[in-house]
Design a protein that fits this description.
By secondary structure, this protein is of the alpha+beta class. The chain has one helix and three strands; from the N terminus they run E-E-H-E.
C-alpha cells in the first residue's frame, strides 16, 4: 500500500517463508521487502552465504515459482 508505505511479498507455497512484510520509504519499498525476505531465508538455511538456494529436490512437489508483490 503506497499511501501507508507498506509492502507484502508472498512467496510460493514450497518456500519455507510464505509472507514477508515491510514498511519504509515508498521509492525503495520493494527492495526493502526483498532484502528482508533474503535475510529471513538465509537465517533458516534456505539460502547459502552466496544467497543461492540450498537445493533439496522433492519428487512429489510441483515447482510453483511465483512471487506476488502487494504494494
Amino acid at each position: 500500500d503506497k499511501s501507508l508505505g507498506t509492502c507484502t511479498l508472498h512467496l510460493p507455497m514450497s518456500s519455507p517463508v510464505q509472507t514477508v512484510y515491510a514498511q519504509g520509504e515508498v521509492s525503495v519499498l520493494k527492495q526493502v521487502v526483498c532484502l528482508k525476505a533474503c535475510r529471513e531465508l538465509h537465517a533458516i538455511g534456505a539460502l547459502t552465504d552466496s544467497l543461492l538456494p540450498e537445493l533439496t529436490v522433492l519428487e512429489d512437489e510441483p515447482d510453483i515459482g511465483m512471487l506476488i508483490f502487494m504494494c
